[in-house]
Amino acid sequence: MKQNKFSILKRIKSFGFAFNGLKILIKEEHNARVHLIAAISVILAGLYFDITMMEWLAVSFAIGFVITIEIINSAIENISDFISPEKNDSIKKIKDLAAAGVLMSALTALVIGLIIFIPKISILI
């Protein structure tokens, strides 16, 4: 079995593929844009409320978690549509499960956001 030698050029190209995937995600996936707007809003709220380092860690993880699961969901949807362009109950089940993953990640992020921001907002009220 032939092993490929390490190539810095190939590693740099792989980043290009990844950034292209992000570009596709933002351009083609409506829900990803919603998540991006939510992430920007939370970051701005974090700056406004001067959240702690630990709160930034939680917020950063939550944002990354949701966007990562959205990327995986989009990949699953695309490969499913490629494999079976026509309606298929098995493909529907696969896509519904992937969408449930996004829902769970978004709900987890929402809970994290509520835990962090409700006390800060209640002080303003």
Automatic annotation (TrEMBL):
CDD domains: UDPK_IM_like. The keyword Cell membrane applies. Mn(2+), Zn(2+), Cd(2+) and Co(2+) support activity to lesser extents. One of its GO terms (biological process) is phospholipid biosynthetic process. It is found in: Cell membrane. InterPro entries: DAGK, DAGK_sf, UDPK. The active site is at 70 (proton acceptor). Keywords: ATP-binding, Cell membrane, Kinase, Lipid biosynthesis, Lipid metabolism, Magnesium, Membrane, Metal-binding, Nucleotide-binding, Phospholipid biosynthesis, Phospholipid metabolism, Transferase, Transmembrane, Transmembrane helix. It is a multi-pass membrane protein. Substrate binds at residue 70. The chain crosses the membrane at residues 32-51, 57-76, 97-118. Belongs to the bacterial diacylglycerol kinase family. This is Diacylglycerol kinase family protein.
